[in-house]
Amino acid sequence: MKLLMEKGYEGRALSLLGPCDVPTVQPSKTRTAPPRLPQLSETELSRHYSALARRAHGVNDGFYPLGSCTMKYNPAVNEEAASLKGFTAVHPLQPLHTVAGCLEALEETEKYLCAINGMDAFTFQPAAGAHGEFTGLLLIKAYHTHRGEGEKRNKILVPDSAHGTNPASAAMAGYQVVNLPSGPDGCVDLEALRQAAGEDTAGLMLTNPNTVGLFDKNILEITRIVHEAGGLCYYDGANLNAVMGVARPGDMGFDVVHLNLHKTFSTPHGGGGPGSGPVGCKKILEPYLPAPRFEKKDGKWQEKPCPDTIGRVRGFQGNFLVVLRALTYLLMLGREGIPEAARNAVLNANYMKAGLEDLYPMAYPGLCMHEFVMSLEKLKEETGVTALDVAKAMLDEGIHPPTMYFPLIVHEALMVEPTETETRETLDEAVETLRAIYKKAVEDPEYLKACPHRAQIGRPDEVNAARHPVLRYRPEEEKA
Ligand SMILES: Cc1ncc(COP(=O)(O)O)c(C=O)c1O
Questions:
Q1: Does the global pTM surpass 0.70?
Q2: C-alpha dist (Å) from residue 162 to 179, 238, 250, 428, 473
């Protein structure tokens, strides 16, 4: 398919703009030649994007059980709230009294998130989950520094099942990462944790349910061990959608948490943003939260004094419109709807798992939470068919493949997260499709290895794309 830049011709345009009536300023700093932009009619442009959309698979096209980063339910009403003039036609530098509505919306969301998580305060500055992790770790660092233990406590404990961003954020915050092994049940090995926790422990980072879809039954003991060693406990809340309204990180013993609003509280995840990774904390960490913070006194909004803040981690109050979508979602679902969404996410995952486990071995036994991980190691040994081949075969059947080869501790992993909003019929169809694919893999492995046969894109050279990304368009003349 041709790129926009390769279509159209010089002089064809979407609309004709009148002559510029803005006086020229700083002529030396402005470009002298017009930029090279596509020259297309409006019809050509809209056809181009419609054609691209037809080639993609989104939640509106079919089942999308991508584990760990699922595109969840994103009600259209959220978009309506996020496009209200009162919220969009504002500038973040306006005087506080003119943006009182926006501040109220932030305060209201903070109140709900505190209640759901068992935390005392939230900041909305972080732009995504990983950014929230980094911010949360800076809070932990500030806490130890203020107690004169900043230098000594230089290690963060991270289970081997953790999302890759956890060790990366800890390293970025200047910590040494200590890898904690998982036991055969997929949960943290308590003995290994006891050995690792000590006077140099700044904290532990944990996702619960973890990335293999299991709720760590020893969570109270885990946080107790870390606290006893003088460390703090960080909750990676990207998987909160399995427990929201049912169990609270604060009650599990966590001191600080980030949420992926662009996952748990709607807003499409994936495609590069915008996201929102608010960080919540208990009272002991509140003084270090990013500034500026605001409070209402005698009916008027004003900036709170924050002498111990870690400073800004992002401009203004983060991606405000994503927070608004989350608030709309919270208000729509309410006190009953939030835990019901979590329960349905868990029910749907277990329903699908039960329909598959006699054919597809599960990485860990027992009930799962909102997602489950299958290992296709045995299928690969017997037929040569890999997790990638099965994922490609799913594309032929109109299903977006699950997450592949993650978490790293499971070989030939396929991680399925059906989400709470899929119907029983959709789940039944997906189970039937996966069962048929397995049968085909055993009978005709070569067919599977050549999948997809009907998808728009076959097997792109992923290694080459990752090692030599071409991120900028270059016209043919320039390349030559
Ligand atoms: C468990 C977990 N932690 C952290 C992240 C990082 O979040 P983000 O992609 O918003 O940086 C993700 C991503 O979905 C995740 O699944």
A1: yes
A2: 9, 11, 20, 30, 36
